[in-house]
C-alpha cells in the first residue's frame, strides 16, 4: 500500500472527530491499572514488556511485585539476573526479562540513567521493538509515535476497513503509516492507549460490542456489516510437539537434582528437573542416558502426573517420574542437588513449577 493509497483511504475520514470520540471515551472509561498511576518511563517500559503476549489480569501482580523489588531503573540494572528471572517466574517468554535488564543497563551507562525520548535511541535498546518504542514515547513523553500491535491492527482494520493479512510482518507498516496520519498530536498518549483499550474492552476479536462503541460512526466495517470478518489473518503454522521424560531424582540426603538451562535459547538460565528427549531415547534407556549425562545411577519409582506446556511455537509433553539416586557423583557444572525447601528459591519455567508442585504438595 503506497502513501497515495493511504491518503485516499483516509480522504473521507474525519480525524478530528475520531480523535475526540476516542480520547474522551478513553479518559472516562479507562481501567485503573497500576502502571497508569504516573508517566514514569521506566514503569511504562516494564508494563509494556510484561503485557506482550500476556493478559492484563496476569500482569498486574507481577508488575506490582517487580516494581516493589526493582523500584528504579538503577535497581534493575544492578540486580542479579537470577533475581530478575525469579520475579518473572511463571510469566513466560523469559528473554523479555533478560533483554529488559540488558537494555536498562545500557540506559544507565549510555543515557545517564534517563530513558531516551527519541525514536532512534529507544528503538535501539535490546528487546524494544516498534510497538514498545511507540508506547514508551507516546505514554511517557507525549511524542506522537504509533504503537501498533495485534490489537491495534484488529481495531484499525475494522475502522478503516483494511483487508490486508495482519499475520504478515509487512502489514504492520501500513497500520503505522495510517496511525501517523490520524494520531492526535495534542494527546498521543490517550490516543494510543484509547486504541489499545478499545481493542481490549469493546472491539474484541470475537463479537465486538459495536452498539457500545464510542467510534462506531467512524467505523467502515460496521457500516458495511463486515466487522466479524476482519481482520484478515492467515492461520499460524501447526504447533510442533516435543516429548520428554522428566525425573524428580532424590538422593539419600533428601536433596533433589535440578539443573540450569543453557544461557541462550528457549528458557535460557532458568532451572528444571532433568529432561530426557523421548525422540532420542526410549523409556527403557532413559536411566542410561541420565547416567551418561549426570554421572549417577538412578532407580525409577512412581509415574506422576504428566505435564503439557504450550509455547507460541511448540508444545512440550512431559511424562514425569519419581526416581532415587543410588550411586555415582554428579557431573555437569549446571546441575546440582538442592534441599526441598530451596526449590522455590530458584526460577523455574511454568512446566517445571508444575513438576515441582507435585513434590512440594505431597
Ligand atoms: S464499531 Fe464495532 S467493529 Fe467498529 S471499532 Fe467499534 S467495536 Fe470495532
Short description:
It is built from 15 helices and eight strands. By secondary structure, the chain is α+β, with helices and mostly antiparallel strands. The strands form two sheets. Strands 1, 4, 5, 6 and 7 form a five-stranded mixed beta sheet that branches. The chain has a three-stranded antiparallel beta sheet with strand order 3-2-8, with no helix packed on it.
List keywords for this structure.
Endonuclease III, domain 1; alpha+beta; 5-stranded mixed beta sheet; 2 domains; 3-stranded antiparallel beta sheet; binds iron/sulfur cluster; about 350 residues; Nucleoside Triphosphate Pyrophosphohydrolase
How would you describe what is shown here?
By secondary structure, this protein is α+β, with helices and mostly antiparallel strands. It has two domains: 3-229, Hypothetical protein, domain 2 (Endonuclease III, domain 1, Orthogonal Bundle); 240-360, Nucleoside Triphosphate Pyrophosphohydrolase (Alpha-Beta Complex). The protein is 42% helix and 15% strand. Strands 1, 4, 5, 6 and 7 form a five-stranded mixed beta sheet that branches. Strands 3-2-8 form a three-stranded antiparallel beta sheet, with no helix packed on it. Strand 6 and strand 7 (314-328) form a beta hairpin. Helix 2 crosses helix 12, helix 3 crosses helix 4 (56-69) and helix 3 (41-51) runs antiparallel to helix 9 (130-141). The protein is elongated and about 75 Å long. The protein binds iron/sulfur cluster. The site of iron/sulfur cluster has 15 residues, from helix 10 and helix 13.
Amino acid at each position: 500500500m503506497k502513501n497515495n493509497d493511504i491518503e485516499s483511504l483516509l480522504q473521507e475520514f474525519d480525524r478530528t472527530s475520531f480523535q475526540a470520540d476516542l480520547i474522551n471515551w478513553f479518559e472516562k472509561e479507562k481501567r485503573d491499572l497500576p502502571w497508569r498511576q504516573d508517566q514514569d518511563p521506566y514503569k511504562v517500559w516494564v508494563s509494556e514488556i510484561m503485557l506482550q503476549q500476556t493478559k492484563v489480569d496476569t500482569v498486574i501482580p507481577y508488575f506490582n511485585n517487580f516494581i516493589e523489588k526493582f523500584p528504579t531503573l538503577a535497581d534493575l540494572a544492578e540486580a542479579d539476573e537470577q533475581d530478575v528471572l525469579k520475579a518473572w517466574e511463571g510469566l513466560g517468554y523469559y528473554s523479555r526479562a533478560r533483554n529488559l535488564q540488558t537494555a536498562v543497563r545500557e540506559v544507565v551507562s549510555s543515557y545517564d540513567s534517563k530513558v531516551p525520548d527519541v525514536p532512534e535511541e529507544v528503538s535501539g535498546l535490546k528487546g524494544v521493538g516498534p510497538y514498545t518504542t511507540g508506547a514508551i514515547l507516546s505514554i511517557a513523553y507525549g511524542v506522537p509515535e504509533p504503537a501498533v500491535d495485534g490489537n491495534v491492527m484488529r481495531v484499525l482494520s475494522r475502522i478503516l476497513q483494511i483487508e490486508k493479512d495482519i499475520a504478515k510482518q509487512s502489514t504492520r507498516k501500513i497500520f503505522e503509516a495510517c496511525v501517523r496520519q490520524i494520531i492526535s498530536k495534542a494527546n498521543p498518549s490517550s490516543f494510543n492507549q484509547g486504541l489499545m483499550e478499545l481493542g481490549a474492552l469493546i472491539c474484541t476479536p470475537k463479537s465486538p460490542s459495536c452498539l457500545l462503541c464510542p467510534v462506531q460512526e467512524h467505523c467502515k466495517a460496521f457500516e458495511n456489516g463486515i466487522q466479524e470478518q476482519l481482520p484478515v489473518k492467515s492461520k499460524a503454522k501447526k504447533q510442533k510437539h516435543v516429548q520428554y521424560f522428566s525425573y524428580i531424582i532424590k538422593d539419600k540426603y533428601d536433596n533433589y537434582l535440578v539443573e540450569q538451562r543453557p544461557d541462550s535459547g528457549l528458557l535460557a538460565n532458568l532451572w528444571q528437573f532433568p529432561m530426557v528427549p523421548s525422540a532420542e531415547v526410549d523409556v527403557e534407556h532413559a536411566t542410561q542416558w541420565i547416567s551418561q549425562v549426570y554421572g549417577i545411577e538412578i532407580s525409577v519409582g512412581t509415574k506422576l502426573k504428566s505435564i503439557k506446556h504450550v509455547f507460541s511455537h511448540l508444545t512440550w509433553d512431559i511424562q514425569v517420574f519419581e526416581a532415587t539416586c543410588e550411586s555415582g557423583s554428579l557431573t555437569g557444572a549446571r546441575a546440582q542437588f538442592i534441599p526441598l525447601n530451596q526449590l522455590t528459591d530458584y526460577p523455574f519455567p511454568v512446566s517445571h513449577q508444575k513438576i515441582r508442585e507435585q513434590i512440594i504438595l505431597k
